[in-house]
Amino acid sequence: MLPYKTLIQLNRASNISLYIQLCNSFISLITDGTLQAGDALPSTRALSELTGLNRNTVKLAYEELVSQGWAESIERKGIFVLSKLPALSKNKKNVSNRVLDLQKESFIWDNPFIGKKETENFQQSVLTIDDGFPDVRLTPIDLLMREYRSISKKFYGKNFLKYGYPQGSEHLRNALCRYLADTRGLVVTPENLLITKGSQMGIYLAAQLLLKASDHIAVGVSNYRSADEIFRYTGASLLRIPVDDYGMDIDVLEEVLQQQTIKAVYIIPRHHFPTTVTMSMERRLKLLKLAKEYRFAIIEDDYDFNFHYDNKPYIPLASIDHNRNVIYIGSITKTFAPALRTGFMIAEPGFVEASSSLRQLIDKQGDSLLEEAFSSLFDNGEMERHFRKSLKIYRQRRDLFCEILHSRFSNVIDFKIPEGGLAVWSVFDTSISLSDLSQSAAKKGLKIADGSFYNNEIFIPNGLRLGFASLNEQEIEQSLELLRKII
Amino acid sequence: MLPYKTLIQLNRASNISLYIQLCNSFISLITDGTLQAGDALPSTRALSELTGLNRNTVKLAYEELVSQGWAESIERKGIFVLSKLPALSKNKKNVSNRVLDLQKESFIWDNPFIGKKETENFQQSVLTIDDGFPDVRLTPIDLLMREYRSISKKFYGKNFLKYGYPQGSEHLRNALCRYLADTRGLVVTPENLLITKGSQMGIYLAAQLLLKASDHIAVGVSNYRSADEIFRYTGASLLRIPVDDYGMDIDVLEEVLQQQTIKAVYIIPRHHFPTTVTMSMERRLKLLKLAKEYRFAIIEDDYDFNFHYDNKPYIPLASIDHNRNVIYIGSITKTFAPALRTGFMIAEPGFVEASSSLRQLIDKQGDSLLEEAFSSLFDNGEMERHFRKSLKIYRQRRDLFCEILHSRFSNVIDFKIPEGGLAVWSVFDTSISLSDLSQSAAKKGLKIADGSFYNNEIFIPNGLRLGFASLNEQEIEQSLELLRKII
Q1: Nearest CA distance, A485 vs chain B (angstrom)
Q2: Complex-level ipTM beyond the 0.90 threshold
Q3: Could you tell me which residue ranges the HTH gntR-type domain spans (chains A, B) (predicted)?
């Protein structure tokens, strides 16, 4: 008989019942080849003595083994491992058979602000200068909870727990249509609108539908890295167009278009990432004209619409595009709370329908309950009140932050006061190594990135986006004071 | 002067201020070519008279136009459309320039139970026999709300609104590890686990990482259509293997393997979709053996684990796979609430890491707040209590449903009592047209599908999954009585 006393390990503290543990132990012995087809199992009496288990527990385990098809009971003889089981070889941890090696090029990249371990972020006691995150302390979570309570009390409230619609809640799409017309002259119907999991999903869907491996897409020399990665994932080639103080250089784009067919242009015309520049109206119009002439799509990433401090912001390209070449991508997430992923894509109904179908393949639908709660917050004006309130606070923070940068860092940091967005694009003096800076800062209790996130194959600035929005005034003072000492 | 009185339409009831409306009207006139570069705008006095607006409102609008770069003020002359604007042609709704035609084959499909319009589903007053949805009336939404309140009251609660982790909350991954070990002998660490938006996203990620256009994947002759669509979307070819009463026929698979390299096999070994059969232990072991020998991955879709009524369910293939060829996909969504998309994928850490990276491209991360609330529900045992309670209710519903099918439909419907799952696979007599049936039923207030969702290029049964779980006993009686009358 096998040394069952050592082979079978039971955990009496577990809340899984002992007979199931025993049954699973036998399954392990069978599947790792210790027990072979036709082998006899010990009698219930013997096993009961060896393990100290009640005989009934052993009987239950054997019954379970039989009912699961691992063993058979032969009258007057006992219990045996099923004779017709295929032979199983003995190789417990053979990793040489791994087939799960990846086919597509590994594209893992790190956002320096997203810790690998939760402890890094969620129990943080250090100051962080992030790259432009909102301050979740301002999120009106109580209002969201109130909406949740109100929905769950309604007689039809549980319907929002059922399967819903890949294109998103009709209520939220209607609320967004009104909101977009009012705030940015973007007049669309719910058929033009897909609710996404943040603006990220909008870019992903658009890229998947527009691009294939042989295609080209134009992006900025400096660009949002996650978007670059999405485009690369389709296999398409990236053509990099310079970006200056007036946004992407559309004259250069035109020269490229004369040589090369491109399927799409990706732009962040408002507060370009990472440099925060806004594209001039002249270039916007020329880009629309080129799109018509050369027949390409414009992916307009306007995730930052809500954060514009001075004059009224430019209306989006999508609002002045009469040829319907623009796929417009927006975010609610960024303004409300990053973890409650909600954004939207606006395009032709046919494109929205195809995007919804792809979205259905990916994750079927969004969170209907959250979408319903957000619609109510738009309807009762709380969402816009929150936006206005945050904007006012962020403006104050921007002003203080830039004032300190100006007065105490002007010899080492070159920057412009951003018209909008949540970060200051800061180019450091070449004598400062950002990687050293980041490491020294960490030791002094200040978390700040090393800038590598903004680099790509041709754009290697000695720069950082310095996020001011998630820090209150005291924290701004403290963190910049720390930064000054480190430099 | 242009007929501004008719060209400019203002809505005094809108909550967008009049000067912005006026400004946007001018932008429209400029972008549609009615106003050209260099054109003079009417004086503030003239426009004030024409529109009835206060002169200051007109002034504000003009200032806005100037600040947005659409117009320029020339001293002593007035306001003009910016002279350096590129010429804009006049074509308001020219759709001939549309470039957003899709490249990839359109793959829109319909789930007959997911209405195109919300009114169809959310305000439903008709009885529905769905294809096996849970009853959201059983969802313990109050417990979820309690967790939300409790989290939002904690001093660190707002941290769950920040950016989180593409792999999912560590707390939930830990809770799931304990739960999976206890319930199905699946012993893994949090590194093996990715939290997904429902099992759908698990299948999508696995397919994207495993398959490319020239690859082959084996699936059942009858199969879950969404999975088929996901695999097709990668460009891979589907090889269909017969499925009988003991699950996929692994002997046939072996013959295919001798001829053709395949990258992966997709199986639903527990309650196969749509036919609800469970794969025999013998075939499971043989499949694992073949995976090792022929080096392919097994995508084990076990979305239905929690719904098994009679004996203890088989443990998953993933629990007895020593060669790590299995990618295991599970669902919480299906048991808790379909709209709160939460599932998981279990695989080798390297595969999980790559899947997390791809997930980050798609939508960055899940809903950290929901994940945290779910972890608490696992930790305090409420989740399992809910599972047990639903299981008991669903078993009663299954028994009643099958009893009625047996007593009143035995001449027209062929079925077996399912060991688990939320639906009865029902093959109708060939004299009955399911499409006619569905239409007649709709007229009588019973929503039931026409079965086309289960069809594919070689599987065309006259069958339907009849879902019993979302109906209470009275509704079961009513809906089957209606169905009987219609037949």
Answers
A1: 28
A2: no
A3: 16-84
